[in-house]
Known about the structure:
This is Lysine biosynthesis protein LysW. The chain has helices spanning 21-26, 41-59, and strands spanning 6-9, 16-19. With 60 residues, the protein is an alpha+beta fold. A two-stranded antiparallel sheet has the order 1-2. The longest helix is centred in the last third of the chain and has 19 residues, at 41-59. The radius of gyration is 12 Å and the shape is elongated.
Amino acid sequence: MSEIDVxxxxxxxxxxxxxxxxxxxxxxxxxxxxCGCALPEDELRYLKIAxxxxxxxxxx
Length: 60
């Protein structure tokens, strides 16, 4: 799954940034590098579930 990036746009400062899915799976939080706004914990959990699902589909 290294060929894609997860794209984020901060709702507070409108800064766009991306994270490689493998790195995202290892993180406990996602914060905007410009202003520090954090992605809500439940949204990060759902995003990790979606990435795991895509990884499973890719290997089968």
